[in-house]
Recover the amino acids of this structure.
């Protein structure tokens, strides 16, 4: 039952129609944290400032932020966490007694997805496919939180890989012009942050897995749940992690940012994962 004490949370973005966040957070509120509600708000770019103003005036406790507002929203906040500063983007805002704090849980969601499978990124050799917006967030958070041995960047457009390396300015980054420059057996972890294989072009794969050995494959794509890349990885006996795991974990970490005491059992986490999968 909702009443005058109900705490309001939500998502701001455009479009928000397909978002799984309302399902995830309202599931948590039904089962674990009572008397809260999570709503999706479609906010136009020109209305972003007033939407953020409404957060304090209506005492909305937390927002998630999605495309296209993740970068510009930072202008309207009072404080940014180190991770939000590092990535130059915010996906979670906490209203702490009228002070708006911007944070980013996307990268930690990715790292948690690996930790859930008992995979540590420290001292590992990583091959990152892609050099777009998602690649920037993934790379930045791995370099910020973990200590990989080396990260190779491979992208269709070589110049974009060079730009990404320049922005990150880290000696562990190596840009490849082509996959032929790489000894595949040296790679421990493959991360796909391109859109190749995403619905509806589900028959595409960004890389040929022949030649890799003892690999873990992560695909940031979550639609379809199992991309062609993940299917091929599985067939080779590699460990595979789907993008849904990053999505689930970034949401749970957002909830923990709002409620420092929030903890979820693996049983409840499985139930929420299942509900999200059913709604992809
Ligand atoms: P996002 O914000 O989701 O990362 P993006 O910035 O448009 O989106 O980046 C998409 C990524 O997928 C890029 O690395 C892109 O390669 P280019 O930099 O060469 O454009 C990659 N990508 C998209 N379609 C591709 C395709 N058909 N083959 C190879 N790479 C592709």
């Amino acid at each position: 039952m909702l009443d005058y004490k109900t705490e309001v949370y939500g998502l701001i973005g455009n479009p928000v129609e397909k978002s799984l966040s309302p399902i995830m957070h309202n599931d948590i509120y039904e089962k674990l944290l009572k008397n809260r509600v999570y709503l999706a708000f479609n906010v136009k770019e020109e209305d972003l400032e007033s939407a953020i103003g409404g957060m304090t005036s209506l005492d909305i406790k937390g927002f998630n932020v999605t495309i296209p507002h993740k970068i510009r929203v930072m202008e309207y906040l009072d404080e940014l966490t180190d991770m939000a500063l590092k990535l130059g983007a915010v996906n979670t805002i906490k209203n702490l007694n009228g002070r708006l704090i911007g944070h980013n849980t996307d990268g930690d969601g990715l790292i948690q997805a690996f930790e859930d499978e008992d995979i540590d990124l420290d001292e590992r050799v990583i091959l990152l496919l892609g050099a777009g917006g998602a690649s920037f967030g993934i790379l930045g958070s791995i370099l910020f939180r973990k200590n990989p041995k080396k990260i190779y960047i491979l992208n269709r457009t070589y110049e974009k890989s060079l730009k990404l390396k320049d922005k990150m300015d880290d000696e562990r980054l190596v840009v490849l012009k082509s996959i032929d420059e790489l000894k595949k057996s040296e790679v421990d972890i493959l991360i796909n942050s391109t859109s190749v294989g995403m619905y509806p072009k589900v028959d595409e794969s960004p890389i040929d897995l022949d030649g890799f050995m003892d690999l873990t494959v992560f695909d940031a794509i979550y639609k379809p749940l199992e991309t062609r890349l993940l299917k091929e990885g599985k067939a080779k006996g590699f460990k595979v992690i789907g993008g849904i795991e990053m999505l689930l974990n970034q949401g749970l970490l957002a909830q923990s940012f709002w409620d420092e005491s929030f903890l979820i059992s693996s049983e409840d986490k499985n139930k929420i994962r299942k509900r999200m999968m059913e709604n992809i």
Summary: The chain is about 35% helix and 20% strand. The chain has a mean pLDDT of 97. Residues 130-135, 155-157, 160, 194-196 surround 2'-monophosphoadenosine-5'-diphosphate (CB under 6 Å). The longest strand covers residues 7-13.
